[in-house]
Design a protein that fits this description.
The structure is a homodimer. Chain A contains eight helices and eleven strands. By secondary structure, chain A is α/β, with parallel strands linked by helices.
Chain lengths: ~230, ~230
């Protein structure tokens, strides 16, 4: 490890600090950042096929749990994990006051966008709509986006395959995470508005930052040093 | 195909009937049922790695969309798919009045249960609780289950990894789908109550059954014949 761990770990009765990491694409991108921060989880943590959920690290003061991206924010907001990594999309969707997001990790770059069928996007002036149906796994973000434009949005909450919705008459547009845009194109959709650019953030439970200040600030500093390296 | 398709397909302007199928374990179990019903989707439909979302079948009157289990019910309830296959767990959770579930397909057998840490389950009498925290991806089912017992449940909605919640102090118990119970045991939990036994159902949009009665009733009959075979 690059940094001494002695001042970060405690033998406190509180047990190890829990770091919640998201499954999937972001976990792979996180590997080098964790390594530079001196965090070495048990080997099968980075193997998505492992059915284990909790992993020790080489530091007895830190354990990792691997959960879905949306659940990282829930675990940290409730203090079940003291720190975590999740996308700005999830923070926008839930807007948990208990979460403090001190660091942009600069990975997982993508955007939350509105997409519409190619023909619709070219023919209609969306600013003149008063109502719209939207399929999204981000009901909060979608509703807020249209409310700010004075448009009443009826949201159909889906967990995936939003791209099917317009062609099947389930919604007029979708609000979804877009990376390369290839899935949109494959389904005859075009990106019509970028709602927000998204990267992954280090997040912290505000209460834990007060009750375990040395440990939590220590881990934030480790991530900060890893980004500077 | 075992059954003649001529009386099921129409050249109507409504386009093909859309059958929504769930991704994952159930899709594999469905393979033989679909074959006996004379439904042959494009080959990559059964390949979970395919990124396609919509598949033609050998019958021009039927297309398949492959979505998450929870989304099958949403697509059918809104009429974006006219028929679908989903677990009784999803039907219980949403309780959509627009969905009619005429057939139990007898596959995907499991149960929705309450599980608790081993020690808690042995020491405490749950019938004496007045409040409880529950982690679940079934907030509706969990809330209703405890309301019927006069217990006020605070639900923490998670999308996965519920089994972590009790050990991290996120909830006292979990409400989750249980198959073999091995994941529960691996996380120190025991099943304390079975809320419902679950199998997969053929579901139908009630409006489609009225507006396209011959086609929809035809497909229901094909599934019924497949089960009898």
């Amino acid at each position: 490890m690059d940094l001494p761990a002695s001042n970060l770990t405690t033998s406190s009765d509180l047990g190890p600090v829990i770091l919640a990491l998201p499954k999937g694409r972001i976990l792979k991108e996180l590997g080098p950042v964790l390594a530079r921060a001196g965090i070495t989880p048990a080997a099968d943590c980075m193997n998505e096929d492992s059915r284990r959920l909790r992993f020790e690290t080489t530091d007895p003061g830190l354990d990792v749990v691997r959960v879905r991206s949306f659940d990282v924010a829930t675990f940290v907001a409730h203090g079940a994990a003291q720190i975590g990594v999740c996308g700005a999309d999830v923070l926008m969707e839930f807007d948990y006051p208990e979460i403090y997001a001190p660091l942009d990790l600069g990975i997982g770059g993508c955007r939350i966008s509105v997409a519409a069928p190619k023909g619709l996007a070219e023919e209609e002036d969306s600013s003149r709509w008063s109502r719209i149906t939207v399929a999204s796994k981000y009901p909060g973000i979608a509703r807020k986006h249209y409310a700010q434009r004075g448009i009443q949005a009826e949201i159909v909450h889906l967990n995936g395959a939003m791209e099917l919705a317009p062609a099947l008459g389930l919604s007029k547009v979708i609000v979804d995470l877009v990376d390369t845009g290839s899935t949109l194109r494959a389904n005859g959709l075009v990106e019509t508005e970028v709602i927000a650019h998204v990267t992954s953030r280090l997040i912290v439970n505000r209460t834990a930052l007060k009750t375990r200040p040395e440990e939590i600030a220590g881990w934030i500093n480790r991530f900060r040093a890893a980004l500077a390296a």
